[in-house]
Automatic annotation (TrEMBL):
Coiled-coil region list: none
Gene this protein is translated from: atp2b1a
Summary of the function given for this chain in its UniProt record: Catalyzes the hydrolysis of ATP coupled with the transport of calcium.
Membrane topology, from the record: Multi-pass membrane protein
InterPro entries: ATP_Ca_trans_C (IPR022141), ATPase_P-typ_cation-transptr_C (IPR006068), ATPase_P-typ_cation-transptr_N (IPR004014), ATPase_P-typ_cyto_dom_N (IPR023299), ATPase_P-typ_P_site (IPR018303), ATPase_P-typ_TM_dom_sf (IPR023298), ATPase_P-typ_transduc_dom_A_sf (IPR008250), ATPase_P-type_domA (IPR059000)
Family: Belongs to the cation transport ATPase (P-type) (TC 3.A.3) family. Type IIB subfamily.
Cleaved signal peptide residues: none
Protein name: Calcium-transporting ATPase
Protein's organism: Dicentrarchus labrax
Any one GO CC term of the record: plasma membrane
Chain spans, region Disordered: 287-353, 1161-1213
């Protein structure tokens, strides 16, 4: 060995490269990692003799790992790179400013302002001026006409303000998002061996030469070579697009690639490539370097190209067709830095083609409607102003158009145009999208404190609509701290852990040996962190309970593990959801083999044919004895909420030779039962209360668990999911499946509909059952409202259910990486009560938006009507352009900040969830909006047409073009703004509550914004002068303005006395677009866009109808041709031989499913269990790879993907 490493050093000296330290270069390793299977093995053989040789070259030990000295780690980072993929640069502030400037209304305003500026400098000779009509004359003071430019300049200035504020908001949003992303990255740790110690380090700290432990459910953070593996199966679909799991062994295929998922087994790998040099990293660099940031077009083309190439890169969202049925091979977007493109990319990539979130859909639609109305109003305003002016000047005064006067006339027209645009600016609620983002970003930030790490912004708001939660039992409802409390050993049932003396030593020795070697070596019991605390449980909690049991029996499992290290285990059958058991084989000194098994008691007992008796002998164990045992031991344990685990073993004598380890069914029979233990997992103390809150809030909690039905029922009763005397049902997975399938074994939606409303507990369920249940509830149409389902999951196989659910919660502590990938929210404390907090925040987001809408629409209605009527009657808008922009700024930007950051209250949990199609603006809100609007209009028109008499000042109406600002109009403006300010306080309540001040001081942002706006308003009025068209007012006038403003609070009380039920005529507004309303052909078109943009939908209807006819005809022709080539569509479902032909049929160039339907993972369409319950492979939610391409015919409850050729096929058949 020494020789080997020495020659390695010598070679590198000859090459004289900077990796002088190590026996192989970065290049060597990169080229090694590009090989697969046999090639890779021969290459390792040629260059390094074996993996041991590779370890020596990399100066690491397969057993003890790296020394872990900082200097060594640093050196490795410099030579081989860090495990980071540098993110794309965020948009700079200037880019954001530029984007904010793209707003159409702002551009129109800028143009108008510039024209107005230019014209204000033109002065016709004085003599001529008189001849240009009344409106132009009457300028007594020279200085006044000089100030004509101010209005244009002021508009430009306020545009700049609006742009800066918008850009700043975007920037802070982006920053928050990046913060969130990096927070997710820091959360991710991986287990490595350093200095002989097993430690967890952040993924970014992994270096080449590390020895990492990989286990079920991991997402591999770097490339490596397998050193030792048990039954390791990897899902490489994220890199290759092949959905079949790849078996990894040292002999056949030892290459492990970053970004792939461990679906089964465990092992150790030597890290050989990290960061940009790993396979995922290389792909990202290709993606990154191929296009410049500016060339978005290129990016889009690339994406399309990549899709066609069927490559699926984690995080780059490029799905392939063949990986569709596999749970964990779903569109995964990486959590960690080493595969993450930057946050922005993620944001795009991690939303599979989802509809915009419900809320955004409703808002966009509403904004489009309001915008259209505003446009009409502003156009009418301009037309009326122009007509009045023309009629007045040329008709009534009878002047003719004189060349000298042209600029003056144009100036008038520009002024009218500016007024029109300001009406439009005020009418369009730009604040809406802003309010949503602020509210969501704020909630997400605060939800961190409540242990909710939100990965997709809109999940937060969807949670407020949740009507059902399907929760795991272990770890979510319970504490996930397991202890053995009862045992059945040597024919005796002990109600508490027995004393070691009471157990025959022959049984005890086998029992302890079995526990020590047949629990994963990553599972251990550590001494408590604090004196007198409970010992820490590391690894799988059920195994911890067994190791604790061994400690309670005064035996040291660690000694046995030291004697039999992991390398000496002959064969390991790891736990998976099909086996529901784990077995380890040891080769004994005399050449015989002994296998230890542990697993769910009812499953393992069926495989036992002997049982150990009190005298330490084994006796025959018949089915009759088994039923006896189930009744006397297992059911009593289960009914106390204990989990029962059976421990057994089997000897294979040397005389019979080596058994065939691959035929599992022959190996796992004829076991000898050693013991059955009852493991307690206490319910979390805060759970029953949280579940009560959910039920009160109209959310049904269902428990989906792998435990047996008695245990599940006991726990459900403790939690309050089942209440005594309710007629709710508990089912086992088998029974559930029997009830929902028809004679042909297909799942039928009607059958699910009969079950789910009453179902509260689903026990012994497989991940597929969970997915079926979630899908069944979501697709159900029994209740008038579509159910919104949240699901919790922690295992790899929960991926499909988490994806399918409206909101997927992954466990932050117990969850596997795969589950976290598929989820929307990560519960950092694995606690059910955090889900209730998420519901509260979700509802709060919804309410915040409604509050803001209620405020915003009042202002819009009033401002538009005032500007419109004012312009028509007095030929000049009472609210000037700059003033309107200020109002727009306070009501849009500041108010969205103030109202969107209200903290949630417990009261939110007292009402039922809003449905998906509940309008944004309820009757109560409509009543408030119209009520306040009436009050404000009355006040303003009174001031406008009688203000001069009331306040005894000059009238501001009918002033010439460049007249100085008047007190009259200043009072109108001031009162208007103050009414908005007081109405902002009114807007804090939307359900018609009386006390609008309740909890106002809990929200500092709100107080400071209202107060700040008031101060600025004083400054504008007193010192704004010409640019703001204001004159400073006296104290008296200020008091009057404030009093009139305050009136809106009093008026609010009057409004809330009127019962809404009386006002049947009030309409609601802001319904969302239902997904159902969007026809399939349109979805197909929309698939190319990132989200369904409702505004664009309105415009694209026409074009789409054209294409629709063509598409249909083409598809039908294709189908006919396909049938002519005499391939029956449904053959493959009956006989497996024809599968290949179906596969070819589907990958026939015209039938590229992935082209027509790029982002819908097909897992939703065909439930893997439907077609072939028999042909399940070991992952139990993946069927033979070609089957999933065909739904089971139009009858079944599962529709084929809309837009796929199959769908049109159904319609045309």
């Amino acid at each position: 060995m020494a020789n080997n490493s020495y020659s390695g050093v010598k070679n590198s000296m000859v090459e004289a490269n900077h990796d002088g330290e190590f026996g192989c270069t970065l290049k060597d390793l990169r080229s090694l990692m590009e090989l697969r299977g046999a090639e890779a093995i021969s290459k390792i053989g040629e260059s390094y003799e074996d993996t041991q040789g590779l370890c020596n070259r990399l100066k690491t030990s397969p057993i003890d790992g790296l020394s872990g000295q900082p200097a060594d780690i640093e050196k490795r980072k410099t030579v081989f790179g860090e495990n980071l993929i540098p993110p794309k640069k965020p948009k700079t502030f200037l880019q954001l400013v530029w984007e904010a400037l793209q707003d159409v209304t702002l551009i129109i305003l800028e143009v108008a302002a510039i024209v107005s500026l230019g014209l204000s400098f033109y002065k016709p000779p004085d003599a001529e001026r008189e001849n240009c009509g009344r409106a132009a004359g009457g300028v007594e003071d020279e200085n006044e006409s000089e100030a004509g430019w101010i209005e244009g300049a002021a508009i430009l200035l306020s545009v700049v303000c609006v742009v800066l504020v918008t850009a700043f908001n975007d920037w802070s949003k982006e920053k928050q998002f990046r913060g969130l992303q990096s927070r997710i990255e820091q959360e991710q740790k991986f287990t490595v061996v350093r200095g002989g110690q097993v430690i967890q380090i952040p993924v970014a700290e992994i270096v080449v030469g590390d020895v990492a432990q990989v286990k079920y459910g991991d997402l591999l953070p770097a490339d490596g070579v397998l050193i030792q593996g048990n039954d390791l199966k990897i899902d490489e679909s994220s890199l290759t697009g092949e959905s079949d799991h790849v078996k990894k062994t040292q002999e056949k295929d030892p290459m492990l690639l970053s970004g792939t998922h461990v679906m089964e087994g465990s092992g150790k790998m030597l890290v050989t490539a990290v960061g940009v040099n790993s396979q995922t990293g290389i792909i990202f660099t290709l993606l990154g370097s191929a296009e410049d940031d500016d060339e978005d077009e290129e990016e889009k083309k690339k994406e399309k190209e990549e899709k066609k190439k069927q490559r699926k890169i984690p995080g780059a969202q490029i799905p392939s067709a063949s990986k569709a049925q596999d749970g964990a091979a779903m569109e995964m977007q990486p959590l960690n830095s080493d595969e993450g493109a930057d946050a922005e990319e993620k944001k795009k990539s991690n939303l599979p083609k989802k509809e915009k979130s419900v809320l955004q859909g409703k808002l966009t639609k509403l904004a489009v409607q309001i915008g259209k109305a505003g446009l009409v109003m502003s156009a009418i305003t301009v037309i009326i102003l122009v007509v009045l002016f023309v009629v007045d000047t040329f008709w009534i005064q009878g002047l003719s158009w004189v060349k000298e006067c042209t600029p003056i006339y144009i100036q008038f027209f520009v002024k009218f145009f500016i007024i029109g645009v300001t009406v439009l600016v005020v009418a369009v609620p730009e604040g809406l999208p802003l309010a949503v983002t602020i509210s969501l970003a704020y909630s997400v930030k605060k939800m961190m404190k409540d242990n909710n790490l939100v990965r997709h912004l809109d999940a937060c708001e969807t949670m407020g609509n949740a009507t059902a939660i399907c929760s795991d039992k272990t770890g979510t409802l319970t504490m996930n701290r397991m202890t053995v409390v009862q045992a059945f050993v040597a024919e005796k049932h002990y109600k508490k852990v027995p004393e070691p003396e009471n157990i025959p030593s022959s049984i005890l020795d086998i029992l302890i040996l079995g526990i020590a070697v047949n629990c994963a070596y990553t599972t251990k019991i550590m001494p408590p962190e604090k004196e007198g605390g409970l010992p820490r449980q590391v690894g799988n909690k059920t195994e911890c309970a067994l190791l604790g049991f061994s400690n309670d029996l005064k035996r040291d499992y660690q000694a046995i593990r030291t004697e039999i290290p992991e390398e000496k285990l002959y064969k390991v059958y790891t736990f998976n959801s099909v086996r529901k058991s784990m077995s380890t084989v040891l080769k004994m000194a005399d050449g015989s083999y002994r296998m230890f098994s542990k697993g769910a008691s009812e499953i393992l007992l069926k495989k036992c044919s002997k049982i150990m008796t009190a005298n330490g002998e084994s006796k025959v164990f018949r089915p009759r004895d088994r039923d006896d045992m189930v009744k006397k031991v297992i059911e009593p344990m289960a009914s106390e909420g204990l989990r029962t685990i059976c421990l057994a073993y089997r000897d294979f004598p040397a005389s019979e030779g080596e058994p065939d380890w691959d035929s599992e069914n022959d190996i796992l029979t004829g076991l000898t039962c050693l013991s059955v233990v009852g493991i307690e997992d206490p319910v979390r103390p805060e759970v029953p209360d949280a579940i009560r809150k959910c039920q009160r809030a109209g959310i049904t909690v269902r428990m989906v668990t792998g435990d047996n039905i008695n245990t599940a029922r006991a726990i459900a009763t403790k939690c309050g999911i089942l209440l005594p005397g309710d007629d709710f049902i508990c089912l086992e997975g088998k029974e559930f499946n029997r009830r929902i399938r028809n004679e042909k074994g297909e799942i039928e939606q009607e059958r699910i509909d009969k079950i789910w409303p009453k179902l509260r507990v689903l026990a012994r369920s497989s991940p597929t059952d969970k997915h079926t249940l979630v899908k069944g509830i979501i697709d159900s149409t029994v209740l008038e409202q579509r159910q919104v389902v949240a699901v919790t999951g922690d295992g790899t196989n929960d991926g499909p259910a988490l994806k399918k659910a409206d909101v997927g919660f992954a466990m932050g502590i117990a969850g596997t990486d795969v589950a976290k990938e598929a989820s929307d929210i990560i519960l950092t404390d694995d606690n059910f009560s955090s889900i209730v907090k998420a519901v509260m925040w979700g509802r709060n987001v919804y309410d915040s938006i409604s509050k803001f809408l209620q405020f915003q629409l009042t202002v819009n209605v009033v401002a538009v009507i005032v500007a419109f009527t004012g312009a028509c009657i007095t030929q000049d808008s009472p609210l000037k352009a700059v003033q309107m922009l200020w109002v727009n700024l306070i009501m849009d930007t500041f108010a969205s900040l103030a109202l969107a950051t209200e903290p949630p209250t417990e009261a939110l949990l007292l009402r039922k969830p809003y449905g998906r199609n509940k309008p944004l603006i309820s009757r109560t809100m409509m009543k408030n909006i119209l009520g306040q609007g009436v009050y404000q209009l009355i006040i303003i028109f009174t001031l406008l047409f009688a203000g001069e008499k009331l306040f005894d000042i000059d009238s501001g109406r009918n002033t010439p073009l460049h007249a100085p600002p008047s007190e009259h109009y200043t009072i109108v403006f001031n009162t208007f703004v103050l009414m908005q300010l007081f109405n902002e306080i009114n807007a804090r309540k939307i359900h018609g509550e009386r006390n609008v001040f309740e909890g106002i001081f809990n929200n500092l942002i709100f107080c400071s914004i209202v107060f700040g706006t008031f101060i600025i308003q004083i400054v504008i009025v007193q010192f704004g002068g010409k640019p703001f068209s204001c004159v400073s007012l006296t104290i008296d006038q200020w008091l009057w303005c404030t009093f009139l403003g305050f009136g809106s609070l009093l008026w609010g009380q009057v409004i809330s006395t009127v019962p809404t039920s009386r006002l049947k005529f009030l309409k609601t507004a802001g319904h969302g677009t239902q997904k159902e309303e969007i026809p399939d052909y349109e979805l197909e078109e929309l698939d190319d866009m990132d989200e369904i943009d409702h505004a664009e939908r309105e415009l694209r209807r026409g074009q789409i109808l054209w294409f629709r006819g063509l598409n249909r005809i083409q598809t039908q022709i294709r189908v006919v041709n396909a049938f002519r080539s005499s391939i029956s569509l449904y053959e493959g479902l009956e006989k497996p031989e024809s599968r290949s032909s179906i596969h070819n049929f589907m990958t026939h160039p015209e039938f590229r499913i992935e082209d027509s339907e790029p982002h819908i993972p097909l897992i939703d369409d065909t439930d893997a269990e439907d077609d072939a319950p028999t042909k399940r492979n070991s992952n139990n939610n993946a069927v033979e790879s070609s089957n999933h391409l065909l739904p089971e015919g139009p009858k079944s409850g599962t529709p084929s993907a809309p837009g796929s050729p199959l769908h049109s096929l159904e319609t045309s058949l």
